[in-house]
Amino acid sequence: MPAIPAFMLKKLYLKGSLKNVADGFEFQIKNTLAPGTITALLPIEVDGKACPIADTVVSRGEEKMAASAISKEKPTSFGLNTTVTMMVKGATLPPGSHTLVIGVVTKEAGELKWDITDMVA
After folding, report:
1. Tens of pLDDT along 45-65?
2. What pTM does this model have?
3. Pick from 7, 15, 4: which is nearest to 117 by CA?
4. Domain limits of the chain?
């Protein structure tokens, strides 16, 4: 399977999108690489601690889905230039810099995992 270098995957993250919301925190990624089919989301890690996948919700426009609902049997497409908001319920982040590890499994490239650092104001 083709590997995608981490420096390219980091470009998917929309810098400055990390923020606390009423019932958790969220950030955005935008597909600027190529269309893909996501067959699983891995637990998001924040500052070395994994967040339960059951607490993660993925939004694309008005469409919302539980991250745990995405599977080989129920994959989701991630089209070119599509922006997705990933929200983790039940946890807010203190102001300052945070390191997130984002991971997905795709039909086209297998498991992809990358880290980013962003600030919560």
Report:
1. 999 999 999 999 999 989 999
2. 0.93
3. 15
4. 6-120
| Residue 57, token pair as written in the block | 């919700």
- The hierarchical CATH code for the domain 6-120 is 2.60.40
- Tokens representing residue 63 in the block: 């469409």
Contact 87, 30 (CB under 8 A): no
Cα angle, residue 46 at apex, residues 11 and 118 outer, rounded to 5°: 45
What tens digit of pLDDT does each residue of 92-104 get?
Answer: 999 999 999 999 9
Determine the Cα–Cα distance for residues 111 and 69; give it in Å rounded to an integer.
17
| Alpha helix (H) residue ranges in 12-118 | none
Question: Taking a C-beta distance cutoff of 8 angstroms, is the pair 72, 40 a contact?
Answer: yes
